[in-house]
Amino acid sequence: MVAGGSLVIANIGDTEAKVELAGDKGKPRTVTVPAGAAVVADGGSAVLTSSAPVSAGVRYVSGGDIASYPVQTGDAREGELIVYTR
User: What is the pLDDT along the chain (86 residues), one digit of tens a residue?
Assistant: First the structure.
């Protein structure tokens, strides 16, 4: 993830999703994403494991600058999402 970026996790499903973020900065933590909502999760590199399908992206906002990019799975069959810091 770019320096100053934030991880955004979106859940377009009908039920809440429990997303575990396991990264290089301490023990894993769980974030609850309500149905039809998105949350911003701080952190660096992380592996995401979710109880329901979710989408993720990284947003960057600084002064008048704004950017974003999607986070894609390495292999859709595994169901994990890996986010690397730069």
Answer: 677 788 899 999 999 999 998 876 678 889 999 999 999 987 667 788 889 999 999 988 888 888 988 887 766 566 666 777 67
Q: Own/partner pairs for 28-35, CB < 8 Å, 24+ apart?
A: 33/9, 35/11
Q: Are strands 55-62 and 65-71 parallel, antiparallel or unpaired?
A: antiparallel
Please list the residues that pair with 80 across neighbouring strands.
Answer: 49
pTM equals: 0.76
> Coil, strand, or helix at residue 6?
strand
Cα distance between residue 16 and residue 36, in whole Å: 8
Would you say 46 and 6 are in contact if contact means Cβ atoms under 8 Å apart?
no
